[in-house]
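QUALITY CONTROL LOG
STEP: pairwise intake check
CHECKER ROLE: data steward
CRITERIA: each record must contain a sequence immediately followed by its structure tokens, with no blank fields

ENTRY 1 OF 2
RESULT FIELD BELOW
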Amino acid sequence: MTHDYADRTKNGLHDLAGKLGLAITGDHLANIWEECHLPGRDAVAQVLDQLLSVLFPGVFGNQVVRESELGDFLLESLASIRQSLSRQIAMALDFRASQASPLLSGDPRCGANASQGSEIASRLLEALPGIRQVLGEDLLAAYEGDPSAGSVVEVLMSYPFVHAISTHRIAHELYRAGIPLLPRMMSEVAHSRTGSDIHPGATIGPGFFIDHGTGVVIGETAVIGRGVKLYQGVTLGALSFPKDKDGNPIKGIKRHPNIEDNVTIYAGATVLGGKTTIGKGSVIGGNCWITSSVPPETVVMSEQAERKRK
């Protein structure tokens, strides 16, 4: 009886595996090409962690780095990053090539982007000193903008915002280079770890700070100036999604707002629309719903809050 049961179970799993295999190969939503592969989720997260560790040695990652060892650590890490990142970029470019027509076994497009992947990875590494400098301004803004922060080092070591903005500034470089998949994959790693959802396409000036961070959403075409401060739950989103003649959302258009320099937006506020601009120095109160532009140096409060104040 036991032997018969084992045979039936094996045959049942065989049939199930066949049906599941047909479903998977039918929609191609898997990373199972014969010669070409998509970037790996874990591999992208790992290379992101390596990049964070060279921006802030000894803060991200588990390695203890002494100042006397910094040069060797950076040299070894950058070499490893360039190799890993080049491969992931090349696979992402292979994926883009497959959008014209499916890649088959032996397809000459598989691996054709290796040199371009290496070149773009090198350009990102060359941008790291500049990214590091801007991040220094972000951390200082966090310290100066949060009375509870005891030091810039406390911000660096404990605020989830640091992971979120550091990841964004890396992913944004890849986005600007036109790399598919990788920038969004990186931003979603930070999203899952910090609760801040920043699209890699968003343009964010220096001295940026998200206080608390959880629930913040910043859309792809948002443009944020210098010295902007957001609180938890702020959304910089799209007001509507224009559609083409077939009823599909039109991509590649300006959908998200502009936030000018030195604006503060308090918790739960929602600012929507590609034509919406929040003027320099303005303050948007908590839970406000904004769908039209606000002049510079303006304080906006919700109607409910105004009634309570009076």
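ENTRY 2 OF 2
RESULT FIELD BELOW
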Amino acid sequence: MTSTNYKSIASKLKFEGRAFINGKYVDAIDGRKFESINPATGDVLCSVARCNHQDVDLAVSASRKAFESGVWSKTAPEYRKNILLKFAELLTHHGEENAVLECVDSGKLIIDCINEVANDTPMHFQWYAELIDKTFGKVPPTDPSVTSLIIKEPIGVVAGVVPWNFPLMMAVWKLAPALAAGCSVIIKPAEDTPLSAIRIAQISKEAGIPDGVFNVIPGFGDAGEALGRHNDVDAVSFTGSTEVGGLFMKYSGESNLKSIGLEMGGKSPFLVLEDAKINDTLIDNAINSAFWNGGQNCSANMRQIIHSKVKDEFLDKVLKKVKKIKVGNPLDVNTNMGSMISKGHLAKVDGYIQKGIDEGASILHGGTSESNQKGFFAKPTLFDNVKENMTIAQDEIFGPVLGVLTVNSTDEALKIAKNSKYGLHGSVFTQDIDKAFYIAKNLPCGTISINTFSEGDIKTPFGGYKQSGSLSRDQGTEALNQYLQTKTIWISHS
């Protein structure tokens, strides 16, 4: 499809900003609203319900009633499977429209939105639907007078609190396995990007998901806190900042000790060892790892740790590529990078760029943004001579900044890579398989990619070590398991 076609779809979009509770779109109880902004233009798209604890209570009540009734939680696996497959079919049918909606609400590239919203979103529902009737319990060996059953049951009411950088994809990473498990689910989208989650709620109803089983509560942090503190929410799955993740642990401890799954920040390293081939594939991965989604990605590899033997060649080729990055209208298929999510976030990214300059890193391209622009566009920025304890080497920038750190050995590269409070992702490039496994086994990260930048796919679990996450994981069978409780039934007989 062409840019013209996508712009035409955008011009015809009808925006829904109300909450979705118990199968219906509703305004916030107190009538409050906030504006959803197109970050590429600064224009208002629509008004959105600003939900608070009252609306959360209503959604939780609807979720609990649906769960206890068994209308979803106690149905045959094939029933849930067929409905989720229908949901996937409808999401495919509405894929391009939903992708354009996400593009204008988030400033993400339309090409990325097509991949994530039109393609990956329905695929996730299909994958977990197919898994429903292939999840088995166990019968352990016991004394002949005993039969023991180990079974799995849905955990109950689940709150999914999701970020703005992958709005629908992150919601679906939680929604698809939780629904497959038989849970009732409340999605709290980020206030900057609520529209795609609100939209698919109606599609879920059309697919046959019963009222109350899937609810959407747009709003600000107080709505998230209300979910985190609610005594009738059984689990929270959160993706976002480490700071807010810590708050959800606090909310759990001060309420009903609900299960908390966390996927949080990162400062992921990209290691290029001395024997690596500095070819187009490596350079493309270096660029993609730092600038994909405008660097607004938890696993972005912005700390690029390069051996001195290949550093000059690497930097020369990276600089040429960075200079060619086209920043602009995300609906244009020829654009390489869209906007930052908001004016405030752009100012934060600019602040980090200025901090890098002030602390002595050498800026080779980019810099702070233009003050008189329409929309919130950052400049792709490349730093050399970054030191491991500089602010831009330690803090999560969440913007298009690539920083090069020079090393003289594999052990030095590993030491610097480990110098972080985060542990979400890492990439290593080398022709030596022993060195590759040495790095992979000794780098405390949830995902390590070798000779590529990749987070894996739906079949592989995704999450972090240290302050990047908890023991829970998104994707894979692990995601389904975190929404299931384990019960032992012990039967004594003659």
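INTAKE CHECK: passed for both entries
DESCRIPTIVE NOTE, ENTRY 2: The longest strand covers residues 146-154.
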